[in-house]
Amino acid sequence: MRYRKFIADHLFTGSQLLDGQVLITDEKGRTEAIIPAAEAGDEVQPLSGIITPGFINAHCHLELSHLKDVIAPGTGMIDFLLGVMGRRFVAEEQVLPAIDAAETAMLQNGIVAVGDICNTPHTIPQKQRQRLYYHNFIEATGFVAATAQARFDAAVATWEQFQAAGEAITGRNSIVPHAPYSVSAALFELITGFPGNHLLTMHNQESVAEDEFFRTRQGDFNRLFEALGINISSLPDFRTFGPSDAQIGKSSLQTCLPRFRAGQSLLLVHDVMTSEEDLQFVQQARQALPDCYWCLCPNANLYIGNGLPDVELLRRHGATIALGTDSLASNHQLSILAEINTLRQHYPALPLAELLQWATLNGAKALNIEEQFGSFEKGKTPGVLLLKNDLSEVKRLI
Ligand SMILES: [Zn+2]
User: Fold this and answer.
1) How many CA atoms lie within 13 A of 130 on its CB side?
2) What are phi and psi of 262, to 5 degrees?
3) Could you tell me the distance, in angstroms and rounded to a whole number, from the CA of residue 288 to the centre of ligand 1?
4) Burial class (CB in 10 A: 0-12, 13-18, 19+), 106
5) Helix pair 148-163, 185-192: axis angle to 10 deg
6) Is 190 within 8 Å of 179 (Cβ atoms)?
7) For the chain, which domains are there?
8) Quick check: helix, strand or coil at residue 123?
9) Closest CA to 224 of 178, 185, 255
10) What's the gap in Å between 203 CA and the centre of ligand 1?
11) 63 CA to centre of ligand 1 in angstroms
12) CB atoms within 10 A of CB 205
């Protein structure tokens, strides 16, 4: 068998930055070994930069790729949500070329696997090409308990289309709630009880407005409900989707996390408003709660104008952090390297090895694909990237 041997200024394994080590793979990129340069023999390819496993984009909405440059930056959360809702359902002729271009960009940007939110089957033909690994999170939304069953049935119908879409897609699909403020307790119950629904995700504490609504029932979210024609105070089942009287004062995370089940795996996306009390709550009640992973999408937070999460706080509490791009509706590009560079700019003291682990091994763990992706361990095929010129460029080696 022919082997490929790479050496660069540094080798990132998925968890550690090493010097003077050679990565050996087979021709298809299956990891064979990491050995000292002195033992690697001939035909070692010398490179300038950092070698790393392929990037995991833990949160994307590929089907929204036609919304690139459509919604202006800095609108704030409510106008952003209304902007997406008004434009998300358009003809397939418009959507499919945008999906293809966005996936090609992800490939060029070194992304090998994606946690992808789906409200439609639009991305199925693209995913059947198997250029990237996808876990598909079929998203359900429904404020009103009376419509919970109908909303859930619609999500199941989309899930069935994905399940029937062939080898690369079957078995890689979950049904997930959109966010604490947009899913009734009845719909939560249907989602978390769906057989086989182990790997879940949810938009979490993305904005000040969400937090304010859960803590006080006041603030800008009332404008969203008004715009959607939902009079929350007149709904007999208001308490089933918003905070109950007893829950007033609690954060959205503490209100809705107990609706998930122990043993489930939950990827919490954004975490901008996640507080020390939230992290303590997750820690203290962990026996009764799902396993939590934390996905940061800093460029989308800045695009919408939500501010950045307290990364130091998450680190202090030992949160397992992954990275995502969110959609092209709220990002200029689908690039995990761009997310890393934004975090480096705003948190210059973050150790590089830790950031790279968020982008690789932690993302793979969050999507439950660490047997194949995320690190250079024997037998894995995580992809091989070269980060060049102080992380300003990424090149796929395999
Ligand atoms: Zn999102």
Assistant:
1) 6
2) -60, 140
3) 26
4) buried
5) 30
6) no
7) 1-53+374-398 (2.30.40.10), 55-373 (3.20.20.140)
8) coil
9) 178
10) 6
11) 11
12) 25
Identify the burial level of 344 via C-beta atoms within 10 angstroms of its C-beta, where 0-12 means exposed, 13-18 middle and 19 or more buried.
middle
Specify the DSSP element, H or E, that contains 112: strand 111-118
Residue 104 corresponds to which tokens in the numbers above?
């090609």
pLDDT at 302: 98
Q: Determine the residue type at 355.
A: L
Task: For the chain, report the end-to-end CA distance as a whole number of angstroms.
Answer: 17
Distance 90 CA to ligand 1 centre (A): 18
CA of 60 to the centre of ligand 1 (A): 6
Cα(138) to centroid(ligand 1), Å: 12
**Percentage helix, strand, coil for the chain under 3-state DSSP, each rounded to 5:** 40, 20, 40
**Distance from the alpha carbon of residue 306 to the mean position of ligand 1, in angstroms:** 13
Helix axes 77-87, 208-216, angle to 10 degrees: 100
DSSP characters over 167-213: TTTTT-EEEEE--TTTB-HHHHHHHHTSTT--EEEEEES-SHHHHHH
Using only the alpha carbons of the chain, give its radius of gyration: 21
Ligand 1 centroid vs 350 CA: distance in angstroms? Answer: 24
Can you tell me which residue has the tokens 């950092």?
50
Residues 8-65 have pLDDT tens digits of 999 999 999 999 999 999 999 999 999 999 999 999 999 999 999 999 999 999 999 9
DSSP states of 222-238: HHHHHHTT--GGG-TTH
pLDDT in tens, 369-388: 999 999 999 999 999 999 99
